[in-house]
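The freezer alarm interrupted the setup, so I double-checked each line after restarting. Inputs confirmed:
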Amino acid sequence: MHKFMIAGGSHLKGTVRASGSKNATLPVLAASILNAGKSVIKEVPGLVDVSVMKDVLVHLGARVSCEKDVVEVDSSDIQPVEISEELMRRMRASNLVLGSLLGRFGYVKISYPGGCQIGSRPMNLHLKGLQMLGATIHEKYGYIIAEAKRLTGADIHLDLPSVGATENLMMAAILADGVTTIRNVAKEPELVCLQNYLNSIGGHVMGAGTDTLKIEGVHLSDLKPAACTVIPDRIEAGTYIVAAAITGGDVTVVNVIPEHLDPLLAKLREAGVNIAVGANDVRVLGNGKVKAVDIKTMPYPGFPTDMQPQMMALLSLAEGTSVITETIFENRFKHVGELQRMGADIKVEGRTAIIKGVNRLSGANVEASDLRAGAALVLAAMAADDNSLLDNVEHIDRGYDQLEDKYNALGARIIRINN
Ligand code: UD1
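Predicted 3D structure, all chains:
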């Protein structure tokens, strides 16, 4: 178990580089199964979740090698062997191999991923879509088994724009017989990154970034080796941006695509934070207290649920009362109790949190319940009056590349305690 000892009273200053996006890397790694050959993936972040996906690929028979942030996957010898409960429990997103394994082999068996700290996270849209592509699905003894001789193109309308379901269906449809149209899909930038990778290996996908995808199926023999560069992590970058605001610092985050940060930057500007946007960087000048703002999490390009806990930490110290409504995940307020321990004044009513800004937060012993909750508590702790001890930082390691090194280079004082 790892803990962070975090000194309060930091004012971050300097430049920090965002790593490649976790949520773009995972589907691209899963998609590398499809081409039965080599893929070179650049700007891969050093994260526990990425290691789990590499382990899944190795378990399936891929040869995976890494050199700094470049990962090479050779999927020539992959077989659709069962993905055990042990691998699924390590990371929910292992379910992203469902579409690519089914597309390439016509068979996949994975342990049911189950719920997690932030919600029940069903797979119904993934499975319904695969059925529409002609797969037969059996769910028994905690496993999902999907089979099809060859998937067939279909018209699919998603009930809601699930990111994972869109990715799985996009990957499955690449090798289907005929054209697949998927409406009401997720529009997140990570989908565009996946589309670019799939097209680079010889797939025919159009429409990523809009609400309709069109995929013209090709044959396995049409697919070829390819290289791809993962887009910068907009959530990691967003977290550093909020870190600058909450600590009253002066931080430039480089290697960003500013457009991907628009929903966050708009809210921060509304809260009175000084922001200068360059071609590939964002500079934030924290100028004292922020103003209260209301936030409702929505699918992209709405305000990202993955930035909700970090914004709550910031708004805990705002002037006035903010209201945050979480519409994506039903149980994503686990950080509230921990922020309250630090002196935040927050009341939760169903999916809404009412945050009355306080003048100061005090350091405390707190616990990360999930990845972004952990990130939010680091922010609160850096801005608090005294030292904090943050437990369960394994959650943070899932999604932040060298978090304490990056913060410490900006003047924070975070020590990892290993016990
Ligand atoms: C992805 C991101 C995660 C982010 C989330 C929402 C990855 C690896 N993870 O997760 O960081 O918080 O998008 O932006 O990219 N749902 C169903 N049925 C389904 C699938 C989803 O009801 O079959 C519901 C979920 O319970 C949730 C909502 O749809 O309430 C959104 O989930 P989804 O977009 O699928 O999130 P993930 O892809 O799991």
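Quick read of the result. The pocket of uridine-diphosphate-N-acetylglucosamine is lined by residues 23, 26, 93, 119, 121-126, 160, 162-165, 186, 305-306, 328-329 (CB under 6 Å).
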